[in-house]
Amino acid sequence: MLVVALVGLVVARHVMDALAAGGFFATGLLVDSDSWTRVQRVLDLRQGAGWFDETVLRLDAPSGLSLHWTRLLDVMILLPALALESALGLAPRDAVLLAGAWVCPVLHGACVAAAVHAARALWTGTGPVLAGLLVAGNPVVGGYSGFGRADHHTLILLAELLALGAAVRAAAWPADARGAAWRAGAFGGLGVWVSPEALLVAAPVLAGFGVLWVAEGARGLPPGGAAAQGLRASLGFTLAVAAGVLCEHPPSGWLGGEYDKVSAQHVLIGALAAAVFGAARRVAGGPARRAAMGGAAAAVAAGVLLLLRPHALNASLASVDHGAARFISMVSEMRPVDLSPVSGLLGDAPVALAATPAALLVLALAAPGWRREGRLAAAVPLGLALAATLPATLLHRRFALDLAAPACLLAAGLPVLALGLRRPELRPAMALLGMAVAFGTPLLALLGAAVAPARDASQSVAFREECGATALAATGRRDRSTVAPGSADPVLLANTINTGPELAWRTPFRLVGAPYHRGGGAITDTFAFFDATDDAAARAIAERRRASLVLLCAPWPNEEAAAASLLWRLRRGEAPEWMAPVDLPGAPAGVRLFEVRPPRPDAAGTQAPSPGG
Questions:
Q1: Quick one: DSSP state of residue 338?
Q2: What start and end residues bound the annotated signal peptide (predicted)?
């Protein structure tokens, strides 16, 4: 009952945020570009797009953007949207938007319940509830799970928590150890089905059984069976990702390889892991012999994988081209965690790392006792997952969500360990200290925000008021009597790539640039268009992209562009003769719209097609 109340409080918190001024119910706005793209993709599916059609036609115009996302979250949005249509009579567009706004708060509640369930295999007393509280209050989890965010990251976290909970049970050999091993692998595979980044947790779950197999018989570890458990987990993983391949690819693509999307290479990873564990079951001898034989088998498996899929270890980054790489380097969540003395250690680092210090302390304090009690095996999958996700997070902040899964489950035990001290008089103080360490790190972020050096406030205010997607979308009114009047769904080139998905949803325009690694060509063309110092080169890009309109947000920072570039010339009001300014009454001062004029007749008297045709 307490878990139900905790889940309800988490969802209620997100609803209260949505009801506040500036929240979803006041503005009708989703949180970020990914959310706008997701609802567009679900609406396309609702309106008849093919199940295997991964192209969003309103982005990366004129050909459309091929996305690496999978259909699991789409279905979780579409089914409630259909129910809203039936029950409330909403139009498909409105129903999809509302269902998309709800999905992540509901998934956050499910993550809290999954954390409580997982922690029950590790902690007694208040530990499981504390794990749920940590997941409920983790700043990164909350940020990715807010109302109005239609994003698959919280679904990845849910799969990871379920996989870790099952792995702890499988490693500790309870009554249902065999079933737990199957579930550990299957939930890890489910996470990879959603996104290959879940390998940060799924791979340590499988590797944990290998570590237990090598160390079998050591004090604190159960004797025998680790290789069999690893085999079961590997087969569960293989079946889950194979189901993902069948659901996400047409038969012609079942054997193909996509590094950024569940595909045959992930089935190969599971099959190779199963082969290693199958061979391990036949190896006899002590830990040294097992380590040598197991290491050799794992090296052969890794060699086979890299021979067949050379970029398998790079995951989604293997699909990034030069154009997308330039943009990705600007994305804050892809940057390293800031560890500088003030803005980092008092701001960025506590948010990204949250419960991690407490988790590391728990491993150090609890390991000796677990070893004496024969419970050390349960810590192996969690420790390996922490060891994989922590350096990944330090390199790229976005992986802080994956780090939250093992960190919160472990950190919840710090107050529990304090209450188990042999000296009763120390227990209350140490329990309070444990609670402070486990739950207090996000407060440092608030302190850091108060004392960190102020950034360029004028630029941030200008961007928010004049370059925000909402302000730009307001310029794309539905009445286009004076804006590209002869073109259906005209193509628009904007210098603010992040705003592309919202503009595509809220205006009648198709956008060229969008912030996705598969859209590197569109990103390259967008940068090249506005960076161009040669009008002919800029015009050639507009014609190739069939752009009828150019949208400029003047305060958008781009210090790399030359003073003679088209971007800076448009900022100064010096448009080339083939671009005509369009009047936008009521638009923010920094927003300017230009219509691309058709080419002039050539020497033969013919005229090239209009870019918007």
A1: P
A2: 1-20
Rounded distance between C-alpha atoms, residue 157 and residue 114, angstroms: 10
Q: CATH 3.40.50 occupies which residues in the chain?
A: 463-596
**Distance of alpha carbon 596 from alpha carbon 609, whole angstroms:** 12
Q: Is 336 left (phi over 0), alpha (psi -120 to 50) or beta?
A: beta
Taking alpha carbons only, the member of 187, 201, 118 closest to residue 159 is 187
Report yes or no: 189 and 235 within 8 Å, Cβ to Cβ: no
pLDDT band, very low/low/confident/very high, at 481 (cuts 50, 70, 90)? very low
- Rounded mean pLDDT of 398-426? 83
| Long-range Cβ pairs for the range 446-455 (8 Å, 24+) | 447/346, 448/342, 448/343, 448/344, 448/345, 448/346, 448/347, 448/348, 448/350, 449/347, 451/342, 451/346, 452/342, 452/343, 452/346, 452/347, 453/342, 453/343
547-553, strands of its sheet edge to edge: 510-511, 491-494, 547-553, 591-596, 579-582
CA distance linking residue 206 with residue 226, whole number of Å: 11
Which tokens in the block code for residue 106? 């509901």
Residue 179 has pLDDT above 80, yes or no: yes
pLDDT band per the 50, 70, 90 thresholds, residue 198: very high
Q: Say whether pLDDT at 560 is over 60.
A: yes
Determine the Cα–Cα distance for residues 93 and 75; give it in Å rounded to an integer: 15
The angle subtended at Cα 157 by Cα 263 and Cα 409, nearest 5°, is: 135
Average pLDDT over residues 294-311: 89
* pLDDT for residue 275: 95
User: Domain 463-596, what fold?
Assistant: Rossmann fold (3.40.50)
The residues that bridge with 511 in the sheet, in sequence order, are 492
Q: Once rounded to an integer, what is the mean pLDDT over residues 475-480?
A: 48
| pLDDT for residue 239 is more than 70 | yes
Please answer whether residues 528 and 441 qualify as being in contact, where contact means their C-beta atoms are separated by less than 8 angstroms: no
Q: What is the pTM of this model?
A: 0.89
